[in-house]
Design a protein that fits this description.
- By secondary structure, the chain is of the alpha/beta class.
- It has helices spanning 34-63, 65-78, 81-94, 98-114, 119-140, 163-168, 187-195, 206-209, 231-251, 279-284, 296-299, 308-321, 358-363, 365-378, 394-413, 431-435, 437-440, 451-459, 477-492, 510-516, 528-536, 540-550, 556-571, and strands spanning 2-3, 5-8, 11-19, 154-158, 174-179, 199-201, 215-219, 224-227, 268-273, 290-294, 326-330, 383-388, 423-428, 446-449, 496-499, 520-523.
- The strands form 2 sheets. The chain has an 8-stranded mixed sheet. Strands 9-10-11-12-13-14-15-16 form an 8-stranded parallel beta barrel.
- Helix 15 (394-413) links the parallel strand 12 and strand 13 (423-428).
- The longest helix is centred in the N-terminal third of the chain and has 30 residues, at 34-63.
- The two termini are 38 Å apart.
- The protein binds phosphoenolpyruvate (PEP) and magnesium ion.
- Magnesium ion binds at residues 389, 429, 450, 452-453.
């Protein structure tokens, strides 16, 4: 049995595909026939080029030309005459194998680029390593795992998955994920929930335990799974999978129902999305809007900024598909664990506390203005609300709003239309903002509480470090007090307040948040129907008392126990 952090609910049963980089060792002994080495190299080059071309075509079809451009760059690296001639020279002059010559040349190119310190060149080093590694595997006849061209259904076993892995993989064939590292709010976990793929993260060493082709069963709700289970366990998981499917089907009856408590308190259940493609999940699960569109994915996995036009198209697509339901689009939240190599940002000691998100946008207003222009132009196609991330002070909101006003004036001058009633809000994810919420609310139309970061900043617990994931505690009394403070600040200022951190979709926490007065809950699409079913069976008046009670307790454990015991009463 293995156990990790249940990151995305659901049961998966399937064959393992182990996705990891193995160190390839090659001896430098002389070879007998240099010509056959040269021939083998040529063959491997052709095979590699064909594979890259195929991946490029698939990516182009699935994700568009700009996302596929990276593979064109990879083909260019492969055809680079400088690198190839060095390999051939080494092979001929030293009489070593093609594989040995190739590996030495690629390693030296990678270390030269890597040592340059510049983030853009470091990314090129990663590209050369990637292409060189593929060529080497083709040369040695080793298997290559391509997530974009998966043909068989698999459970992916990986150290971690990068945003580019998840962006390019053939999702139709991925039944589940299990990874060595990560926490509930790491990128892989959020992605798995958005895509409704069962997943367990933070199972240290799982890539060493599992072999390709092993049968894996996993339950993403409780974080438990087995490698090559016996027949009794397998049957138990098959039953669980069936129950889970039946439960989902039953919940679909609530797809078009309103989210209202038994005593008529109405709240909104919206969804978090990362790309326009995720809207499908929102609509299929009865989401009442988009509470967080993380626009940074538009900027990632590419070599230059997305143009205003490209952004406009993405925002318009989401707004149109939501047909007038609210869509909160968050301005660029890059930095922390999300890098943009082409911005050439220096490496930082504490990236989560560094040059990121609104800080970059205020420092480089041309980036911010392009996004705001695209947003304003798209606003006429639906119900747009704009949200700034990582706000820590009133000055930042005023500065951002000033730039927004400038962009509006520019559009007015050019007679370009935009909606006149776009609400502007901020994420409350930094404790300083929570504390001065009474002042911040005067500057904006709404708050959305970003608990993923609020928990990490208020309790000083890195949200992606699985070693301390037991300390990452949404039920921490300080976290609940901060949330109460923010909700009260918003309501006292006559405004509404939502939550787009992962807490908002957790059925163990929803009763408390509802009792504290939260107006909007934004979550991964798969969480909407279970949340709606729960809320429709609750009494708001009783939850208010429940929430008050939680605020008097000193430890997370006591709060959890108290909520569990009292929930039965609120449902009565
Ligand atoms: C948050 O911090 O709670 C949030 C929703 O934003 P992200 O997870 O993108 O940092
Ligand atoms: Mg955040």
């Amino acid at each position: 049995m293995f156990r990790g952090i249940g990151a995305s609910p659901g049961v998966a049963i399937g064959k393992a595909l182990v996705y990891k980089e193995e160190e390839i060792k090659i001896d430098g002994l002389p070879v007998k026939d240099i010509n056959s080495e040269l021939n083998a190299l040529e063959k491997a080059l052709t095979a590699t080029k064909n594979q890259l071309q195929a991946i490029k075509t698939v990516t182009e079809k699935r994700l568009g030309a700009d996302k596929a451009a990276i593979f064109e760059a990879h083909i260019m690296i492969l055809e680079d005459p400088e690198m190839l001639s060095q390999v051939k020279d080494k092979l001929s002059s030293e009489g070593v194998s093609a594989a040995f010559a190739l590996k030495s040349v690629v390693d030296s190119f990678v270390s030269i680029f890597d040592a340059m310190g510049d983030a853009y060149l470091k990314e090129r080093a990663a590209d050369i390593k990637d292409v060189g590694g593929r060529l080497l595997k083709n040369l040695l006849g080793l298997p290559i795992v391509d997530l974009s061209t998966l043909e068989e259904e698999v459970i992916l076993v990986a150290h971690d998955l990068t945003p580019s892995d998840t962006a390019t993989m053939n999702l139709d064939k991925v039944l589940g994920f299990i990874t060595n590292i990560g926490g509930r709010t790491s990128h892989t976990a959020i992605m798995a929930r958005t895509l409704e793929i069962p997943a367990i993260v933070g199972i240290g060493g799982i890539t060493e335990l599992v072999k390709a082709g092993d049968i894996i069963v996993l339950d993403g709700s409780n974080g438990e799974g087995y490698i090559n289970p016996d027949s009794v366990t397998l049957e138990a998981f098959e039953n669980k999978a069936r129950d889970y499917r039946e439960q989902r089907e039953k919940l679909l009856a609530l797809k078009d129902s309103v989210t209202i408590t038994k005593d008529n308190r109405r709240v909104e259940l919206a969804c978090n999305i990362g790309t326009p493609k995720d809207v499908k999940g929102v609509l299929e699960n009865g989401g009442e809007g988009v509470g967080l569109y993380r626009t940074e994915f538009l900027y990632m996995n590419r070599s230059s900024m997305p143009s205003e036009e490209e952004q406009f198209e993405a925002y318009r697509e989401v707004l149109e598909k939501l047909e007038g339901k609210p869509v909160i689009i968050r301005t660029l939240d890059i930095g922390g664990d999300k890098e943009l190599p082409y911005l050439s940002l220096p490496k930082e000691m504490n990236p989560f506390l560094g040059y990121r998100a609104i800080r970059i946008c205020l420092d480089q207003p041309e980036i911010f203005k392009t996004q705001l222009r695209a947003l304003l132009r798209a606003s006429i196609y639906g119900n747009l609300k704009i949200m700034y991330p990582m706000i820590s002070s009133v000055e930042e909101v005023r500065a951002a709003n000033k730039i927004l006003a400038e962009v509006k004036a520019e559009l007015d001058a050019a007679k370009i239309p935009y909606s006149s009633d776009i609400e502007v809000g901020i994420m409350i994810e930094i404790p300083s903002a929570a504390v001065i919420g009474d002042m911040l609310i005067k500057e904006v139309d709404f708050f959305s509480i970003g608990t993923n970061d609020l928990i990490q900043y208020s309790t000083a617990v890195d949200r992606i470090n699985e070693k301390i994931s037991h300390l990452y505690e949404p039920f921490h009394p300080a976290v609940l007090r901060l949330i109460k403070l923010v909700i009260d600040h918003a309501h006292n200022g006559g405004k509404w307040v939502g939550m787009c951190g992962e807490m908002a979709g957790d059925t163990k926490l929803i009763p408390v948040l509802l009792g504290l007065g939260l107006d909007e809950f934004s979550m991964s699409a798969g969480a909407v129907l279970p949340a709606r079913e729960l809320i429709r069976g609750l009494s708001y008046q009783q939850l208010k008392k429940l929430a008050e009670g939680t605020l008097l307790l000193p430890t997370a454990e006591e709060i959890k126990k108290y909520v569990q015991e009292n929930m039965t009463r609120s449902m009565a």
